[in-house]
Amino acid sequence: MSSTSTCDENGEKFDDTQVILLQEWDDKTKRQLQYSDFNWLPEELNKVEHGCFPSILDPIIQKIKDTRRDIIENSKLGNCAAYPTLVMFYATIKEMNEVKEVKDFDISRLRIWRNAICDALQINMEVQFAKQHLINIAYAYFASKKVDPEIYAEKEQLQEKLGQISTKIQLYKECQSKAKIFSDKPLNTGLFGEHRPEMQQETSYSAAVAQHEDQHWS
Q1: Where are the domains of the chain?
Q2: DSSP state of 183
Q3: Distance between CA atoms of 67 and 217, rounded to whole angstroms?
Q4: Which of 50-64, 158-172, 177-191 has the weakest average pLDDT?
Q5: Cβ–Cβ under 8 Å, residues 157 and 165
Q6: Which of 12, 164, 193, 217 is the most exposed place for a label (fewest CB within 10 A)?
Q7: What radius of gyration, in Å, describes the C-alpha atoms of the chain?
Q8: pTM of the predicted model, to two decimals?
Q9: Contact present, 138 and 131 (Cβ < 8 Å)
């Protein structure tokens, strides 16, 4: 099996650690985002006066107003202080709105979008809709990646090992249970039938193994 057989056309494969990372939404820590994280944004900002929004963001701003009303109504910051966070949030929504397929972005973009949304949440902007949509497309992104087929073989091996351990524990508990008939009695008690302790039906090792083999491991 070649080293690239478990990767997609971009050389990427499913990484559970990245999924966990993107599931972590910390709205209490300011992210180190910059306008330059959006390649097109600095040039657009240079076209307008300080504190104004580039015209390229107008359709997004209007769409949000029409569908979500005022997302900064309950913001902890005034318009001027919130401006950088708001600009990068609008830039994030613009890019997310342009996504049609998972090949249109990568894990780096997902992190930037998440950070911009986290910053907006930090100042109490009403942007839960953006968070939920990012989570949805992130799952679609990770679902498109390939998983190493060997992980399924490893799962079967672990299940088999678990079955062996379960059988071992079961037999040990059975031995402990049967040993109780000699509690406070010498081990020759019942040898000739007199005062024979009541014994449970015996279960052989082969029967325990057979029971294990009949179990279905999902």
Answers
A1: 16-143, 148-184+201-218
A2: T
A3: 48
A4: 177-191
A5: no
A6: 193
A7: 31
A8: 0.65
A9: no
